[in-house]
């Protein structure tokens, strides 16, 4: 892009975002409340001005959004309309909307809506701070996510759609399961297996090796390398005291920011 639009690289900067905001009123100011926010997500941002009208263009590959997001302060064109989010399951519809808060040029409201058949919609409110750079990704994001109770490893296609990956909630190995997903000729395939399967080095229960190979291709790994990592993971989750301490710390952090 730098060759086509000279200077665009230097115009980009990182902006912080607070996800799943419960106390919305506290996030109406330029600076988020320091005692109740994590600011653990980051987006790329470019300031724009169209016919004197200010706004920003956001890029969020971390949420598998494959297109630029334009947010104008006045909410007029070329303001992005509802954007389709990516999901690992076909039956889940996820949409995102982005708007500046009324009367504000410093806070963008990002509303996420998730629709599941037969269930009420789940709406999540997030706040993006386009005038404040994201300063400390290692101190905040990396340390927070080390003890986060849900882990995933994901692969996307050229359009940013989730196609391959694995995910699991952190539990003791004997109680933990891991879900793999990958495309097939007709529809996505999801497979859930016990984490304990990987304690045995050559376990190929019900074609497990074929599943690992299909997922590994999409995440840029070899099946052998992926199996080796999962074996280390399974052994780590056998440490009951470690798992309990990790989940306890995750819970305490959640209490702190509620």
Quick gist of this model?
The chain is an alpha+beta fold and 258 residues long. The chain has helices at 8-11, 137-146, 208-219, 223-237, 240-257; strands at 13-18, 41-50, 53-59, 69-72, 83-84, 93-100, 108-115, 122-133, 150-156, 162-169, 177-183, 188-194.
Integer tally of domains:
2
Distance between the termini: 41 Å
Provide a count of the helices: 5
Radius of gyration: 21 Å
Task: Tell the overall outline.
Answer: globular
Taking the sheet with the most strands, its summary is: 8 strands, antiparallel
Overall mean pLDDT stands at 89
- The count of β-strands is 12
Low-confidence stretches: none
User: Could you say which structural class the secondary elements and strand pairing correspond to?
Assistant: alpha+beta
Strand coverage percent = 25-35%
What is the percent of helical residues?
10-25%
**Side-by-side strand order of the widest sheet:** 4-3-2-1-8-7-6-5
Return the string of H and E elements: HEEEEEEEEHEEEEHHH
Write a structural description.
By secondary structure, the protein is of the alpha+beta class. The protein has two domains: 8-142, no CATH class; 149-241, no CATH class. Helices cover 23% and strands 33% of the residues. Helix 3 crosses helix 4 (223-237). The model has no long low-confidence stretch (mean pLDDT 89).
Features of the shown structure:
globular; 2 domains; 258 residues; 5 helices; 8-stranded antiparallel β-sheet; alpha+beta
């Amino acid at each position: 892009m730098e060759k086509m639009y000279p200077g665009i690289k230097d115009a980009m900067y990182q902006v912080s975002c607070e996800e799943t905001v419960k106390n919305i009123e506290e996030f109406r100011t330029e600076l988020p409340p320091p005692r109740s926010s994590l600011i653990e997500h980051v987006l790329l941002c470019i300031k724009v001005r169209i016919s004197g009208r200010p706004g920003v263009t956001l890029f969020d590959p971390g949420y598998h959004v494959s297109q630029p997001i334009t947010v104008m302060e006045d909410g007029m064109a070329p303001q992005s309309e509802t954007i389709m989010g990516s999901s690992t399951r076909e039956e889940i519809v996820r949409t995102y909307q982005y708007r500046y808060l009324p009367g504000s040029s410093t806070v963008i409201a990002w509303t996420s809506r998730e629709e599941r058949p037969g269930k009420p919609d789940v709406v999540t409110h997030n706040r993006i701070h386009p005038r404040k750079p994201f300063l400390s990704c290692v101190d905040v994001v990396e340390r927070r996510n080390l003890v986060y109770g849900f882990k995933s490893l994901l692969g996307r296609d050229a359009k940013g759609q989730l196609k391959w990956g694995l995910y699991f909630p952190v539990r003791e190995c004997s109680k933990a399961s891991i879900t793999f997903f990958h495309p097939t000729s007709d529809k996505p395939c999801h497979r859930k297996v016990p984490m304990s399967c990987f304690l045995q080095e050559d376990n190929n229960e019900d074609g497990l090796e074929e599943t690992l190979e299909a997922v590994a291709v999409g995440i840029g790994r070899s099946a052998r390398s992926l199996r080796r990592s999962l074996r280390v993971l399974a052994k780590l989750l056998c440490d009951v005291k470690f798992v309990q301490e990790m989940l306890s710390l995750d819970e305490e952090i959640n209490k702190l920011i509620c």
